[in-house]
Amino acid sequence: SLSDRLTSSLKDLRGKGKLSPADIDATCREIRLALLEADVALPVVREFIKNIKERAKGAEVSGALNPAQQVVKIVNEELIGILGGETRRLNLAKTPPTVIMLAGLQGAGKTTLAGKLAVWLREQGHTPMLVACDLQRPNAVTQLKVVGEQAGVPVFAPHPGASSAGEAQGAGVGDPVAVARAGVEEARTKVHDVVIVDTAGRLGVDEVLMQQAADIRDAVQPDEVLFVLDSMVGQDAVSTADAFREGVGFTGVVLTKLDGDARGGAALSVRQVTGRPIMFASTGEKLGDFDVFHPDRMSSRILGMGDLLSLIEQAEQVFDAQQAEATAQKIGSGELTLEDFLEQMMAIRKMGPLANLVGMLPGAGDMKEALGQVDEKQLDRVQAIIRGMTPAERDNPKMINGSRRLRIANGSGVTVTEVNQLVDRFFEARKMMSAMAGRMGGPGGKGKGK
Ligand code: GDP
Ligand code: MG
């Protein structure tokens, strides 16, 4: 499977210190094969691999992750991107009723979806109604009625005995276009604010089906046409989606049967090839097995790497904690380097204005004195100066003599005075922070949380 392939291809990278171009090429070859095996459309695979290569090559080697983990992280992020990033909301009509038309092959899950969507909409305060326009199979209308009953929403159907079939009788039994039109009219008079139009599908794409769907579309002018796609179908997904895009046009995609062991290739392809967002996901036969589509979950599913991804998160967190502990040790023993100093300032800036933060800390007064002179605007200059130093200078600031200061000033576009000020301030801060750490729990400030 795709996840097996990816996992094994990524294993090859484990234990390497650095991502070499050869590593990236080899891994990308494996990922390419794996995606093709999972029925992802070729143009999508090409684009995907191109993005992965670019990002992997430009990726900084992170201290927190090994190369394999880094590639997994990149692959995951790119997958989420291809799957559509953020989820789009349903497009509601300015003047109700909002008309949602379902289209797709027979067995895709349209009728089931009609009920799920109705329940979901009702939970959000809408008053949906279903319209039975599948007059192809004898029991299709009955099926929708059952679904409607389970969902607790009315069904407009052309057969006698239906809860609100009166007008459809006059509109002509057997004509799905007329039923659709009458159904929307019924919703308007009965004040249902959303109409879900269930349509007929066939086993394969054909002219008659497309024409009928297009006629229904023209008759009711839907606000959304949702293309319902069985995620178990493989390469056919793209050609089917293409046919529906040409024949009917659609505004969004719903993936069904995600509870099966679909390999995910359809999901990956359909978004990219049709340019239409995947809006909902159907994950079972029960009405509650339904949710808005989450690209991140789909990506984990495709990669089969839910565990791997959370391991990566943990690795990053552990790394942060280790860094913090190491810094605390250095602060306590007065060994803080300029690199640490800069990192601390940047970290504090990320957390918000200095003033807010220092008030929250024990020993706040000392900290304020130590760091307080550095205002937010100056941080960029401070960063530039420290970046202008050699690693040795950052590690051992005592070696920064007059000629080094001049070189650093020239290199970072500031005056020697500014370099002097920074270095002085650093030594002062280091002394103060060390004293503070000592009071807070001995050398290294061991055992103290933030
Ligand atoms: P339609 O022909 O497009 O209207 O498809 P249906 O709604 O009748 O669904 C066809 C079959 O697939 C039915 O047996 C449904 O119960 C089943 N089905 C629909 N959606 C899902 C789903 O998300 N998961 C599973 N496991 N079965 C589904
Ligand atoms: Mg149906």
TrEMBL record:
Any one GO molecular function term: GTPase activity
SRP54-type proteins GTP-binding domain sequence ranges: 277-290
List of residues binding GTP: 104-111, 198-202, 256-259
Reaction catalysed by this enzyme: GTP + H2O = GDP + phosphate + H(+)
GO BP, sorted A to Z: SRP-dependent cotranslational protein targeting to membrane
Localization (cell): Cytoplasm
Any single Gene Ontology cellular-component annotation: signal recognition particle
The entry's keywords: Cytoplasm, GTP-binding, Hydrolase, Nucleotide-binding, Ribonucleoprotein, RNA-binding, Signal recognition particle
Domain of life where this protein originates: Bacteria
EC identifiers of the protein: 3.6.5.4
Complexes and interactors: Part of the signal recognition particle protein translocation system, which is composed of SRP and FtsY.
Role this protein plays: Involved in targeting and insertion of nascent membrane proteins into the cytoplasmic membrane. Binds to the hydrophobic signal sequence of the ribosome-nascent chain (RNC) as it emerges from the ribosomes. The SRP-RNC complex is then targeted to the cytoplasmic membrane where it interacts with the SRP receptor FtsY.
Family per record: Belongs to the GTP-binding SRP family. SRP54 subfamily.
Domain free text: Composed of three domains: the N-terminal N domain, which is responsible for interactions with the ribosome, the central G domain, which binds GTP, and the C-terminal M domain, which binds the RNA and the signal sequence of the RNC.
Protein name: Signal recognition particle protein
Species lineage: Bacteria, Bacillati, Actinomycetota, Actinomycetes, Mycobacteriales
Protein encoded by which gene: ffh
Entire protein: shown range: 4 to 453 of 531
